[in-house]
Amino acid sequence: DYITKPPIAEFHKDVAKWLNMDAVRTVPGARRGFQAVANTYVNKGDPVLLTALSHYTEFMAVEEAGGVAREIPANDQKLVTPDAAAEKIEAVKKEFGRAPVLAFIDHVDYQYGNMHDVAGIAKVCHQYDVPVLYNGAYTVGVLPVDGKALGVDFVVGSGHKSMASPAPSGILAATAEREGEVFRTTAIEGDVTKRKFGIKEPEMMGCTLMGVTLVGMMASFPHVKERTKHFDKELANHQIVMDALLSIEGTTCLSEYPRKHTMTRVNTIESFDKVAATHKKRGYYLQSALEERGITGVIPGATKVWKFNTYGVTRKQAEHLARSFMEIAQENGLAVKGPASPV
Predict the structure, then answer these.
(1) For residue range 220-273, what is the model confidence (pLDDT) as tens digits?
(2) pLDDT 10s digits, 119-158
């Protein structure tokens, strides 16, 4: 992060400014950001706050550090709320005699693509002096993220999930108050050789992201910054597809609605899966029918409960996808409200 040719140091500063944070390190995937923060603050037996919708890698980071996971439950709408966070912290205090040492909060969860009140939850956590890690795996690089406005101590992003970057890549950003802790430099010394290791940072294992993966992240950054300004168009395109899917009798949306993100979980047990029960291709008929129309990406065989993400599709592509779902439904005897055209 001190290298100027290529301009890695400048890139770190640019990303920090973009996220309205004070310091950034590039890491080999978001999970390494989780790991770095957990290793800094969590000791054996410490309670750590996660949510009922947290990604498994957050749990792994806590486990590796020796922490004890305690989850904020989601409500019936699959949303994690500030009130639920406060109740869980109080329960942790009663159980452990102290507040959690760290909180992992996803802005958009991977299970439903729901958007949670991170700012409200962070405010609650800080009332108990609990530092907050913002998991932006599905937001950083997709939509505007302002770490200080959200009131979080750390922002973690995934390069290969949401920043148009090679895998594995990610970023870890910190506030000025926390950067000296998570990005502290080594103090170890060999007893025989008396060797020291200068400005190496233990939580980065001495090096941040390297090589072509880092260069790829740097190359895509100008495009990524620009595209976050147009998330409203992405949502509009997603809604075209949602309107079509929900016009198919028996199809329901399991994510919060109206949608606030382009990743959505749907239930098609009473629609596409009914067809699969008697179709010669079983559940694979849907994937096959979509591929015939030049559409890929749906999980092969998925006709019950599945997720999809339309981020990056054009309006024309969204309309084609929407029309295709409706046509496939009609061709297989499913009732569709309206003609097989979303426009």
Answers:
(1) 999 999 999 999 999 999 999 999 999 999 999 999 999 999 999 999 999 999
(2) 999 999 999 999 999 999 999 999 999 999 999 999 999 9
| Polymer length of the chain | 343
**pLDDT bucket at 339, cuts 50 / 70 / 90:** low
Query: What are the residues whose beta carbons fall under 8 Å from the beta carbon of 284, sequence distance 6 or more?
Result: 300, 301
Q: CB–CB of 251/258 below 8 Å?
A: no
Positions of CATH 3.90.1150.10 in the chain:
230-330
CA–CA gap between residue 42 and residue 102 (Å, rounded):
7
| Pairwise CA distance, residues 41 & 67, whole Å | 10
Strand 263-267 and strand 305-309: pairing?
Answer: antiparallel
Q: What angle do CA 336, 338, 343 make, to 5 degrees?
A: 120
Buried b (16+ CB within 10 A) or exposed e, 234-254: bbebbbbbbebbebbeebebb
Task: Classify 146 as helix, strand or coil.
Answer: coil
Tell me which fold the domain 230-330 belongs to: Aspartate Aminotransferase, domain 1 (3.90.1150)
Residue % of the chain over a pLDDT of 70: 98
Delimiting residues of CATH 3.40.640.10 domain(s) in the chain: 8-209
DSSP β-ladder status, 68-72 and 47-51:
parallel
At 271, is the secondary structure helix, strand, or coil?
Answer: coil
CATH 3.40.640.10 fits 8-209, yes or no: yes
Taking a C-beta distance cutoff of 8 angstroms, is the pair 89, 99 a contact?
A: yes
